[in-house]
Amino acid sequence: MYGPYDLPPGMYPPAPMGGEEETARAGAPLQPGAPVATDEQVVEAMRTVFDPEIPVNIYDMGLIYETKIADDGGAQINMSLTSPACPVAGILPQQVADAVAAVEGIGEVIVELVWDPPWSPDLMAEDAKLALGIE
Known about the structure:
Elements: E1 22-26, H1 39-46, E2 64-69, E3 75-79, H2 92-101, E4 109-113, H3 126-132
Parallel strand pairs: 3-4
Antiparallel strand pairs: 1-4, 2-3
């Protein structure tokens, strides 16, 4: 089997199709009673993750559908990609999990890659649309 960087130019590894999920995990449980990070801290961490083909972070691209932070600091994130054939489908969810797990006050992180609803440019932040010339 080819690795994602071993394929001939223009060929991409198979990505999950609608209905299938991929899960990325990072972090470790917090000590009981440890302070828990805020939603804003988690959003800022997600804004550090970029699709290498798009000069806009994944949060402002509208790829993050849902984020839940539990009282024990665990985080559950549902995200999508611009397309099921996205060549970074295998690495982007792990990058999100790692970025969020690095936030002080976050324990275990689970990132689910979901395809419903399908991503569309309507989900992008206005600044992201401007940066990409989308009206």
